[in-house]
Automatic annotation (TrEMBL):
Protein name: Sterol desaturase family protein
Topology within the bilayer: Multi-pass membrane protein
Keyword field: Lipid metabolism, Membrane, Oxidoreductase, Transmembrane, Transmembrane helix
Segments passing through the bilayer: 6-25, 53-73, 79-96, 299-317, 323-342, 372-389
Gene Ontology CC annotations of this record: endomembrane system; membrane
Gene Ontology molecular function: glyceryl-ether monooxygenase activity; iron ion binding
PANTHER family listed in its UniProt record: ALKYLGLYCEROL MONOOXYGENASE, STEROL DESATURASE-RELATED PROTEIN
Location within or outside the cell: Endomembrane system
GO biological process: lipid biosynthetic process; membrane lipid metabolic process
Domain Fatty acid hydroxylase: 82-215
């Protein structure tokens, strides 16, 4: 069987998240986890893992194209070149990560990773496909130097697993290890919004780059996590695009060429904070405030579990799915994480996303088992749902949110 065994990363890392939570409960530190943050974090991770199905091959061919046409040297794999590749990879990560905090367009891709007010293994999942594309531009120096793409992709798989384990508050300082490698203590500093910790500890595996380039800071006081101005939103779409929208508004408002340039390539502090406040009033205003019902929490838990299971199955069986089946399944999963994010915001319009998901599920079933009777049943079901849309919407929102406000 031609299975994609990378799918097992989904249950593996989900298991580590659950294990960390179990340890936290045992140590009576369950306050390190919040339900809304955990769901929002996992949603971002699901979307990123899903996007890898469509982008990993592109990144590989991008590296291969550079290697075949522009490689400066012909580097062969041996123990020395593997060490050299690791050091170059980690150094490039440092500069990608530093640019991700100091240049607006790169911060627009990276900011999603820093939005959570929690700091635990679920936060490690907050990686976007735009962030992956940005760092691939930096890693393009590796095939340019002459490292074969096979070596690069193998090392990146290993290199990418390490930082997951630095996103925790349950591990203290690690003695001599702190002098060479990035540890949870170092990364807690990086994720904090304390003034003295801002823009520190960019390293991924090795902390030596921060010490070499003057961006190192020890963890000395309790970090406060998240953005300096909290996002206060768990919307999947708003989390991904709010800063990119701020950049575009800043660019439009800038009266000079220098101002327009700084909108994209200046520092995040160059963006007028009033832009975000205006965008929030327009796009992220809470329709109404309700305490979460048990039904809502249970439904979000169910949807998150279903999304994780579907993600695992789709990745595992990707070679057996047609392009149309794969695309339909991907859209269904993306709509699912958008829906659960909107549920956390208690949006009433999510019922229309549910209609779309039912339609996509019907299309996927038809693509797997094409028949006239199945297509008729799907059409009739959607027609009935549309005819009774208002009643269904009221019942649906009433069940999840306990009451409806006009």
């Amino acid at each position: 069987m031609h299975l994609n065994y990378l799918a097992f990363a989904v249950p593996l890392f989900t298991g580590f998240m659950l294990l960390e939570y179990a340890v936290a409960v045992k140590k009576q530190k369950q306050q390190l986890f919040s339900f809304d943050e955990a769901v929002a974090n996992v949603n971002v991770g699901i979307a990123e893992r899903l996007s890898d199905l469509f982008t990993t091959g592109l990144f590989y061919y991008f590296f291969a194209w550079i290697y075949q046409h522009f490689a400066l040297f012909d580097i062969k794999p041996n123990w020395f070149t593997w060490i050299a590749l690791f050091l170059f990879t980690d150094l490039l990560w440092y500069w990608y990560h530093r640019f991700g905090h100091e240049v607006n367009i790169f911060w627009g891709f990276h900011v999603v990773h820093h939005q959570s007010d929690d700091f635990n293994y679920t936060v490690a999942a907050r990686i976007t496909v735009l962030q992956s594309a940005a760092r691939s531009l930096f890693w393009a120096f590796l095939p340019l130097l002459g490292f074969p793409p096979e070596m690069i992709t193998t090392l990146l798989l290993i290199h990418g697993a390490y930082p997951f384990f630095t996103h925790t508050q349950l591990i203290g300082k690690l003695g001599w290890f702190e002098y060479i490698f990035v540890t949870p203590s170092h990364h807690r500093v990086h994720h904090s919004s304390n003034p003295q910790y801002l823009d520190k500890n960019y390293g991924d595996v090795l902390i030596i780059w921060d010490k070499l380039f003057g961006t190192f800071a020890k963890e000395e006081e309790q970090p406060q996590y998240g953005l300096t101005k909290p996002l206060n939103s768990h919307s999947f779409l708003w989390q991904h695009f709010h800063f990119i929208m701020e950049i575009l508004v800043s660019f439009k408002r800038a009266a000079t060429l220098k101002g327009k340039w700084r909108s994209f390539f200046g520092k995040p502090d160059d963006i007028d904070p009033r832009i975000r406040s205006g965008l929030e009033r327009k796009f992220s205003r809470k329709e109404y405030e309700l305490s979460q019902t048990k039904a809502l929490r249970n439904y979000i838990k169910l949807q998150t579990i279903v999304s994780l299971v579907l993600l695992f199955v789709v990745i595992l069986l990707e070679h057996y799915l047609t392009a149309l089946q794969l695309t339909t399944a991907a859209f269904f999963i993306i709509l699912s994480v958008i829906t659960t994010g909107a549920m956390l915001e208690q949006r009433r319009w999510i019922v229309f996303l549910e209609y779309a998901r039912i339609g996509l599920a019907g299309i996927f079933i038809y693509l797997c088992y094409p028949s006239y009777s199945i297509s008729v049943l799907i059409f009739l079901l959607l027609t009935v749902m549309l005819l009774f849309c208002k009643t269904i919407s009221e019942k649906y929102n009433g069940y999840l949110y306990a009451s409806i406000r006009s």
